[in-house]
Amino acid sequence: MKYKRILLKLSGEALMGTRQYGIDPERLSEYAKDIKEITNKGVEVAIVIGGGNIFRGVAGASKGMDRVQGDYMGMLATVINGLALQGALEDEDIPTRLQTAIKINEVAEPFIRRKAMRHLEKGRVVIFGGGTGNPYFTTDSAAVLRAIEVEADVILKGTRVDGIYNADPEKDETAIKFNSISFDEVLRKGLKVMDTTAFTLSQENELPIIVFDMNTKGNLLKVVSGEEIGTVVNV
Does the predicted TM-score (pTM) go above 0.90? Predict the structure, then answer.
């Protein structure tokens, strides 16, 4: 395996499958099986998941809701998704811990860096819920922050697109895919990989990001094995 410890970033929308909102149990099960493939190879896995399938703070704010209130609702949505993913992973006999940035002691551990690293060393999957615990920060920022804290080798951003393009490949058939690209190039070309705060934090800490299609079975294993899947963003 090329990477020993990874942080997998999943969007909340990815859990919807073919639904309009909520959680698709089949999609959850597929993800759990893919994650099991790499844990069986000894890869240590941390996960940050979004909450957009349940609630988006920014969307709520655009309709007149208080932004801070909306962001806290979004954080709780990520905890719901984290619990669902934990259940799916445990159905595959993968020991899993859910840690949250906001205290919900009845359902999850509070985030403690040393404890999280210990879980990873023991082969447990660790899901980080609740974002960063602060409003105005996205789950992209939470993913980069947690990846740096637990000393992950790479951030794997699982999407429904197979990499980074110079235009939206779902709208533009002539869009060109990058196999690898530097942080500076991404900024210069104005490409959307993560929000600016998350992306800059990753760049400053020289933490590579790989954007790949998570919905194609076997891709996750290929990425951690070092195969050229998706787009690598590096220094």
Answer: yes
